[in-house]
Every structure is written in structure tokens, then in C-alpha cells.
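Hello,

Our lab assistant flagged a job as stuck in the queue for most of the afternoon. It eventually completed. Since we weren't sure the result was trustworthy after the delay, we are filing this so someone can double-check. Below is the sequence as submitted and the structure that was eventually returned. Let us know if re-running is recommended.
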Amino acid sequence: LVLHQQKLKAMNNNNNFSTAKSIYEELLQCPEWGKRREEILFRDNFQCRVCGSRNQLQVHHRQYHFLNSKGDFKKPWEYDDINLITLCGSCHERGHQIFNVPTFYI
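-- returned structure --
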């Protein structure tokens, strides 16, 4: 996890989107995210909150938080329930085509 944090800080300094995405995808493989993901899936009754599908479920971040005091983004599992939602793959993809996920600097 420390290595991930160092990489993410370097990415923030370089504004390298592809590096950020790669690091984010690595963080989604951490056990902390697996546990948090299961909590949200359970809360949402293991179904997409948009269409009700139970297939290809993903947990979507409604927003991202950059912590100014740490110079780093929150880890995927550190978000409050209200900022996480269960979506099927189709609704998740469609949502990203229509909307940009906002980043809040706090």
C-alpha cells in the first residue's frame, strides 16, 4: 500500500492520467477495497441501483476526494456510503459516457 501511495503522489505531481488510472486499478485489487465493495453490494441487495440487474455488478464512486492536507486522493475504500453505488457494467459504462465524475479538493 505504501508503494501505491508513493506512485499516486508522483502521479499527482506529474498530472499523468494513464499512470493515475493504472495506480487506481491496482488499489482496487487491495483487500481493503474488496471488503468495502462487498459492504456496498450487500447494502444494495446485490443489484444495480439503476436497472435492477444482478449481473456484472460494480461499485461506482460518485465523486473523488483529493485531500489537500495530504497531497493525495482518498483511497477507494475510504469513501462514505453515500458516495458509492452498485451499478451493472452496462449502466456504469453508460454513466461514464454521459457524466464526468467530479473531483472535490478538500
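-- support follow-up --
The delay was a queue issue, not a problem with the job. The result is valid. Helices lie at 2-14, 17-27, 31-43, 89-98. The mean pLDDT is 87.
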